[in-house]
Recover the amino acids of this structure.
């Protein structure tokens, strides 16, 4: 059985799309018109140009119809349908060394051992944007936060793990060790964008210009406790300063310094290289 990437490689995408457009005699404008005829929404000229140069990849709105129009298969783009099954875990789209782990369980999920491979339905694929890196440590400068690639998952698999609309999900790779052993360096966390801490859980935060993955507990008055798992790191209490000129300003009880703390999302599950 061939090994399959779960991430679309931009160079491969550009090559396959370019070959298909040449074979079909399609210009960028003609491709945009064909997409509009199928789904009633037309991508802009700059958008199609970015696709053909690999500057950006189409999202879930346009990718399935683009594949159909160009006569491509998901395997042409390095993706393959369905989820490989084993006796231990369900692996998303052939990611043979990744395990889906909900943060509430911290363990691999058993599946029925039937040896079957589900028939692939392109409508059951969801592409989750990956938006850089986050630190499970002292912080990581994440840059602009735009999607740098997409991870492909089965909608059915995601539905097993969370009730969240999969089109809302985002992913980010972890660097650092403050969340070990629960979340390790190079794990990919998948999160739902939220703007506030509603209950205790693992969150993606922007602390000043640094992006962090940490456990967070909210207390009365909007006080946040930032909690690492690794005992080599200590917890930090952040008290809000509503009188500050800058929104979301807090004062650290550890350092006494002020900072801005913005909630980016709440982690719903994560991928762990085996």
């Amino acid at each position: 059985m061939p090994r399959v990437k779960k991430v679309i490689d931009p160079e491969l995408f550009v090559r396959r799309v370019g070959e298909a457009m040449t074979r079909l005699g399609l210009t960028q404008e003609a491709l945009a018109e064909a997409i509009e005829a199928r789904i009633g929404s037309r991508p802009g000229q700059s958008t199609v140009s970015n696709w053909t140069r690999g500057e950006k990849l189409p999202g879930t709105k346009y990718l399935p119809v683009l594949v159909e129009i160009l006569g491509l298969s998901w395997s042409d783009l390095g993706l393959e349908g369905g989820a490989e099954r084993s006796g231990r875990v369900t692996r998303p789209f052939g990611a043979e060394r990744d395990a889906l782990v909900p943060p509430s369980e911290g363990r691999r999920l058993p599946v029925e051992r039937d040896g079957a491979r589900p028939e692939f339905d392109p409508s059951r694929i969801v592409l989750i944007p990956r938006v850089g890196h986050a630190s499970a440590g002292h912080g990581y400068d994440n840059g602009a936060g735009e999607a740098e690639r997409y991870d492909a998952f089965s909608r059915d698999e995601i539905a097993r793990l969370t009730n969240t609309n999969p089109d809302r999900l985002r992913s980010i790779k972890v660097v650092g060790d403050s969340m070990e052993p629960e979340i390790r360096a190079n794990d990919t966390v998948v999160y739902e964008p939220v703007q506030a801490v509603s209950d205790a859980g693992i969150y993606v935060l922007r602390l000043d210009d640094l992006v962090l993955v940490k456990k967070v507990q909210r207390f009365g008055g909007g006080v946040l406790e930032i909690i690492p798992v690794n005992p080599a790191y200590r917890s930090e209490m952040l008290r809000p300063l509503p009188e500050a000129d800058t929104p979301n300003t807090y004062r650290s009880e550890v350092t006494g310094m002020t900072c801005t703390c913005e909630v980016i999302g709440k982690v719903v599950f994560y991928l762990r290289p085996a």
Q: What stands out?
A: Residues 1-6, 81-100, 104-118, 138-145 have pLDDT under 50 and may be disordered. The first strand starts at residue 84 and ends at 85. Residues 10-24 form the longest helix (15 residues). The radius of gyration is 21 Å.
